[in-house]
């Protein structure tokens, strides 16, 4: 039996190249060897997305992004989290085995508390239980499909370790392997894609290069990348430049070597470096963007694909819940 690869994306905004290189591309690569289950984490998005129209549309955008990037729904079980009620049933069961202290240590929750404290607000201001228990729902997403590997960027590794902890304590309690222990699959060269300001590319930092914007907007966005004050003449170090780091994701080895030489020789300003980056990004994204536009033009067809995926997913999810209920004595 093939091993299982699973991952999800939260539809909270435009897909960006951090999502693409951190998760989508490695996940699609894994479909060659693994049985894959990829999904849109729409209930996770509910923690922050309160505009129904906006959420409705980002769900489709993320789904179309996966398909435009090459996901084949005949080969991959592709679905919306919200279509699999068993996930929420499993999450409730996992809660009984999750220490509150474990949730207190989650990065996203800790960052939210720290921000409140720095602002002098109440510690828990604006923090809902969805955010606090986020790692439990994510553990359910993963565990319900007996996942072996979870391709993600580095920012998600702690969540997968928590899923391991929770599953292990359940297996230990019942003295048998009720739930499979998942592993994170993080690619070294794309674990953290930098954003326009050099910090991790993230919707919440407003520093993203979106995947599906018109060419003109793409160029404008790339031109906004923060640079230092080195003059055109000065030699530049490609290894410390985030423009070059991004370039490497899109260019072949010969192109990388040639451009690194131009950085080191001096005589190339940051404006030129950004133009070179734009050219390779645009070359890679143009066909994906065209497929995306076609898919977005037929939402009913897209929804049908997701519904068919959910039909395939539900019996697998139900079997995991049944197994756990039996082990727990609730059968
Ligand atoms: P999300 O929606 O924030 O991000 C989706 C995926 O993109 C990766 N990523 C990055 N990788 C490298 N560099 C970056 N700058 C970058 N920004 C984003 C993320 O690591 C992620 O893999 N909690 C998840 C969604 C989720 C999930 C799951 C994932 C819900 N359930 C089960 C895996 C398995 C999230 O918010 O990802």
Q: Could you characterize the architecture of this molecule?
A:
Helix 9 links the parallel strand 4 and strand 5. The protein has 331 residues and is mainly α. 37% of the residues are buried. Helix 4 crosses helix 8, helix 4 packs parallel to helix 14 and helix 8 crosses helix 9. The chain is built from 14 helices and five strands. The chain has a three-stranded parallel β-sheet. Strands 4-5 form a two-stranded parallel ribbon. The site of tryptophanyl-5'AMP (TYM) has 25 residues, from strand 1, helix 1 and helix 8.
How would you state the average pLDDT, rounded?
97
Spatial strand order of the main sheet: 1-2-3
User: What ranges have pLDDT less than 50 throughout 5 or more consecutive residues?
Assistant: none
Please state the overall shape, judged from the principal axes of the Cα atoms. Answer: globular
N-to-C series of helices and strands: EHEHHEHHHHHEHEHHHHH
What structural category characterises the helix and strand content? mainly alpha
First-residue to last-residue Cα separation: 27 Å
Estimated helix fraction: 55-70%
Secondary structure tally, helices: 14
Total E-strand runs: 5
Report the C-alpha radius of gyration, rounded: 21 Å
- Which ions and ligands are bound to the chains? tryptophanyl-5'AMP
Question: How would a crystallographer describe the biggest sheet?
Answer: 3 strands, parallel
% residues in beta strands: 5-15%
């Amino acid at each position: 039996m093939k091993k299982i690869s699973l991952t999800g994306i939260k539809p909270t905004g435009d897909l960006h190249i951090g999502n693409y290189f951190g998760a989508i591309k490695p996940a699609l690569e894994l479909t060659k060897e693994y049985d894959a289950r990829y999904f849109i984490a729409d209930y996770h998005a509910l923690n922050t997305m309160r505009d129904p129209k906006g959420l409705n549309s980002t769900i489709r955008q993320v789904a179309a992004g996966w398909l435009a990037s090459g996901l084949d729904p005949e080969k991959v079980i592709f679905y919306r989290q919200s279509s699999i009620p068993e996930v929420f049933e499993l999450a409730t069961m996992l809660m009984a085995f999750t220490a509150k202290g474990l949730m207190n240590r989650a990065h996203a929750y800790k960052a939210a508390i720290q921000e409140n404290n720095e602002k002098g607000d109440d510690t828990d201001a604006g923090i809902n239980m969805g955010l606090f228990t986020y790692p439990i729902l994510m553990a359910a997403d993963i565990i319900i499909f007996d996942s072996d590997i979870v391709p993600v960027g580095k920012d998600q590794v702690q969540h997968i370790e928590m899923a391991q902890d929770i599953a292990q304590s359940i297996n230990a309690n019942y003295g048998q392997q009720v739930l499979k222990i998942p592993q994170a699959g993080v690619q070294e060269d794309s674990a953290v894609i930098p954003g326009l300001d050099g910090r991790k590319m993230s919707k919440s930092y407003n520093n993203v290069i979106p995947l599906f914007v018109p060419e003109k907007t793409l160029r404008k966005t790339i031109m906004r990348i923060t640079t230092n004050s080195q003059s055109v003449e000065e030699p530049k170090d490609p290894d410390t430049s985030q423009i070059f780091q991004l370039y490497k994701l899109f260019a072949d080895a010969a192109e990388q070597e040639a451009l690194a030489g131009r950085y080191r020789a001096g005589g190339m300003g940051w404006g030129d470096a950004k133009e070179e980056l734009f050219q390779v990004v645009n070359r890679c994204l143009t066909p994906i963007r065209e497929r995306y536009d076609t898919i977005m033009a037929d939402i009913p067809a897209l929804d049908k694909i997701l519904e068919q995926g959910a039909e395939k997913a539900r019996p697998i999810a139900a079997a995991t819940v049944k197994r756990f209920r039996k082990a727990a004595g609730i059968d």
